[in-house]
């Protein structure tokens, strides 16, 4: 967990930033800036999932100096935009809603969405699983661990990965990223849930 202070961008101190802009072009630019801010905030705080009910009370969405904030509905609109692809006029799939039904274990992050209803908690992809997969491959090759077997726990909490950005990662995000490598033929996952092992090729 980083202890350094988060640096907000200049737009955060600009009151119109907190008001939905009526002009389409200006609104698109506003949503891009919000997406960038949310990703930077989550990356700084090593946060992989965002509970909007909790987040609207934090400095991320509430500028106390300006007495301006994004309410829950507007914060949800920003995340909604982030979940869409650029082709759909969205933010390049930098977020993904976590439903109550699945994909919301209680490990890491802020809450798991249970009982909060739809569109309450979202993954924030400051790196998408495909991008994390690339980071993992680079680390495996750089440390000469091709062909070796590691547990998912070791990858997330092991001393060998302490200096890596994926150290302390949410287990669900790690498994999603490893599954990308399985599809690419670069890894194999085996073992019972919660005790998974991974072999890298």
UniProtKB/TrEMBL annotation:
Compartments where found: Cytoplasm
Keyword Signal: no
Gene Ontology molecular function, alphabetical: protein homodimerization activity; structural molecule activity
Compositional bias segments (type: Basic and acidic residues): 85-97
PANTHER family with a match to the protein in the record: VACUOLAR PROTEIN SORTING-ASSOCIATED PROTEIN VPS25, VACUOLAR PROTEIN-SORTING-ASSOCIATED PROTEIN 25
Protein keywords: Cytoplasm, Protein transport, Transport
Biased composition (Gly residues): 105-115
Protein name according to UniProt: Vacuolar protein-sorting-associated protein 25
Pfam families xrefs: ESCRT-II
Organism from which the protein derives: Penicillium patulum
Transport recorded as keyword: yes
GO CC annotation: ESCRT II complex
Residue ranges the record marks as coiled coil: none
GO BP annotations listed: macroautophagy; protein transport to vacuole involved in ubiquitin-dependent protein catabolic process via the multivesicular body sorting pathway
Family in the record: Belongs to the VPS25 family.
Gene3D superfamilies: Winged helix' DNA-binding domain. Chain C. Domain 1, Winged helix-like DNA-binding domain superfamily/Winged helix DNA-binding domain
Renumbered residue ranges of the record's region Disordered: 85-115
